[in-house]
Design brief:
158 residues, Immunoglobulin-like, mainly beta, 4-stranded antiparallel β-sheet, 3-stranded antiparallel β-sheet, 11% helix, single chain
């Protein structure tokens, strides 16, 4: 007589973290002050208008003097740091969910922008970058003449 075992889909399954740890080896654990702090990258919105590209990045509690914005080889890079302030003793925290530390975000720019004319604004914890488009990439409106085709007009005049 055969013994049947009930199938359990979760048996033998590993969490994603366990799988990654197995593939890449154990990651060193953070200690002390860094134990509750996670790496982060600010969220961004990117949109296009007729004359420019606009990048908005959420950077609450980041000192504007701690921002480094550069363009090299058509790559726009935003670097900075949000520091964990010890106004409250770390032992008194019940939960720390916001991320702190250094961050880097990079974006490829098209050749059709004027990277040397980028303007940056920082207001209420949001960084806004205005990247102007080159003249040749701006949309151009072509006027449509309504009426007699040019060939018919020449024939009529002759």
């Amino acid at each position: 007589m055969r013994i049947m075992n009930r199938w359990d889909p979760s048996r033998g399954a590993m969490t994603l973290q366990e799988q990654l740890s197995r593939v890449f080896g154990e990651m060193p654990e953070r200690t002390g002050e860094e134990s509750n702090l996670t790496a982060w990258a600010p969220a961004v919105d990117i949109y296009e208008t007729e004359n420019e590209l606009v990048i908005k990045a959420d950077l609450p509690e980041v000192n504007p003097q701690d921002l480094d914005i550069r363009v090299a080889n058509n790559i726009l890079t935003i670097r900075g740091e949000r520091k964990f302030e010890k106004k409250v003793d770390e032992q008194n925290y019940l939960r720390i969910e916001r991320a702190y530390g250094s961050f880097t975000r990079s974006f490829s720019l098209a050749n059709s922008v004027k990277s040397d004319e980028i303007k940056a604004e920082y207001h209420n914890g949001a960084l806004t970058l205005h990247i102007p488009k080159a003249e040749e990439t701006k949309p151009k409106q072509i006027k449509v003449n309504v009426g007699m085709p040019a060939i018919a007009a020449k024939a009529k005049a002759a």
